[in-house]
Specification:
This protein is mainly α. The protein contains 18 helices and four strands. The strands form two sheets. It has a two-stranded antiparallel sheet with strand order 1-2. A two-stranded antiparallel sheet has the order 3-4. Helix 4 packs across helix 5, helix 6 packs antiparallel against helix 7 and helix 7 packs antiparallel against helix 10. The protein binds arginine.
């Protein structure tokens, strides 16, 4: 059995259970690229500062390159007894090039090393998630463009409220996603600072140059406080919160579309490519992917909860508990990308049942609020208009008709101020034509929004 890299003061080796329990290499090997990158920057800085010779540095760099090749060809043997990705790489480097490799860990601890790796990894992960967000925005936008003029019932409390342009509804999701991307890019700016050189917690007496490694690794600056650098994971909490918000947004979209795909609604028809069947009921065609988008949001929320609880009781500075940050982080990112990807494909594979939507508009008095606006035009205070229209609705409900089917006499029996013009405010199409406030579902407002987004996203 080989002695550990930290084995100097130990007489006994750890028990197999402890070894199994404390290893992280089975999952943190995912960080190998960042770890190699960090080691390269560190070795070069050590040479530049005269802490190691250029010759040793070159040997280290050559060795790291060889290790990278091995990892990529899947020839590298990851060893649980070497604990984590950092010691696997370092020990393998010593096996490979001997003495010079033993100088690599000068003025470095795994405590600053691991969090450097994780920050580098998150920086790239943000870019990847943002590009998936853009793809989903494009899919929703494309869907909106191809459904110009389609009116749908809008709901509050899941009760019929007012008519909406389908485009307007789809753009609401596009807006949410834009803020989601903004949150990610924001937290990316905040996390892009270098912990490298903070060492275990106190920094070092050796003449290293943290600004140099920070620059080489593309960080904005080195973190100012070495204790803070190795101990906080607030950047993960922030990143995973942003992911949780994305997941919650998509879960709501998923819920809406699952509902719309029911026999009862029948507004939305997913293609076979994004539906699955039942093992017993031959007639079934289920929107499983969207149900899973809804379901998997639970994981992303859970991952955030894990990191929050993980951090809440920790004294300064580094504690081994922090090793438990990686699995939830990886899961959060993987799942967020998954839900974005599948929602994009779903959006590319649905059609709206326009006939069904059109028919559905003639129930629920979606035009009542617009009729109240009509009375406001007539000079009636809104509270009074509300009451007049309320009584018109009651009459329509009693007669089992829509507002537009009431006769002028019937309207006038409620209030004689009502004239022929009222009919131009009734019916969903008329209503849509009346909307004009900024951000409303009015035809020209929505057309402007579509233009704005198509230009922003560079779509035809
Ligand atoms: N695998 C460890 C982690 O992920 C690396 C740091 C270990 N540091 C230590 N002093 N044991 O946190």
């Amino acid at each position: 059995k080989e002695t550990k890299l930290w084995g100097g003061r130990f007489e006994e080796s750890v028990t197999p259970a402890v070894e199994r329990f404390s290893q992280s290499v089975s999952y943190d090997k995912k960080l190998y690229k960042q770890d190699l990158r960090g080691s390269r920057a560190h070795a070069q800085m050590l040479a530049k500062q005269g802490l190691i010779s250029q010759e040793d540095c070159d040997t280290i760099l050559k060795g790291l390159l060889e290790i990278e090749g091995k990892i990529e060809r899947e020839e590298f043997v990851w060893r649980a007894d070497r604990e984590d990705v950092h010691m696997n790489v370092e020990a393998a480097l010593i096996d490979l090039v001997g003495e010079p490799a033993k100088k690599l860990h000068t003025a470095r601890s795994r405590n600053d090393q691991v969090v450097t790796d994780v920050r580098l990894w998150c920086r790239d992960a943000v870019d990847e998630i943002v590009s998936h967000i853009h793809r989903l925005q494009d899919a929703l936008l494309t869907l909106a463009v191809s459904n110009e003029g389609v009116i749908v019932p809008g709901y509050t409390h899941l009760q019929r409220a007012q008519p909406l342009l389908l485009q307007h509804l789809l753009l609401a999701f596009v807006e949410q996603l834009e803020r989601d991307a903004g949150r990610l890019l924001d937290c990316q700016k905040r996390l892009n600072f270098s912990p490298l050189g903070a060492c275990a917690l106190a920094g070092t007496g050796l003449p290293i140059d943290r600004f140099e490694t920070s620059k080489t690794l593309g960080f904005t600056y080195p973190l100012r406080n070495s204790v803070d650098a190795v101990s906080d994971r607030d950047f993960l909490i922030e990143f995973m919160s942003a992911n949780a918000i994305i997941a919650v947004h998509l879960s709501r979209l998923a819920e809406e579309w699952v509902l719309w795909a029911t026999e009862e609604f029948g507004f939305l028809v997913p293609s076979d490519a994004v539906s699955t069947g039942s093992s017993i009921m031959p007639q079934k065609k289920n929107p499983d992917p969207m149900e899973l988008v809804r379901g998997k949001s639970a994981r992303v929320i859970g991952d955030l909860t894990t990191i929050l609880v993980l951090c809440k009781g920790l004294p300064l500075a580094y504690n081994r508990d922090l090793q438990e940050d990686k699995e939830p982080l990886f899961d959060s990112v993987e799942t967020t990308i998954g839900v974005l990807e599948v929602t994009t494909e779903f959006a590319q594979n649905v059609t709206f049942n326009k006939e069904r939507l059109a028919k559905s508009l003639s129930a629920g008095h979606l035009d009542a609020t617009t009729m109240a606006d009509y009375l406001v035009y007539k000079g009636i205070p809104f509270r009074t208009s509300h009451d007049i229209v309320g009584r018109a609705v009651a009459l329509a409900v009693y007669k089992k008709v829509e507002l537009s089917q009431l006769s002028l006499d019937e309207f006038r029996s409620i209030n004689p101020i009502i004239d022929e013009e009222v009919y131009s405010f009734l019916g969903s199409e008329n209503c849509i034509n009346k909307f004009q406030s900024y951000g409303s579902t009015g035809v020209s407002c929505v057309a402007e929004q579509i233009d704005y987004w198509c230009q922003k996203r560079n779509l035809p």
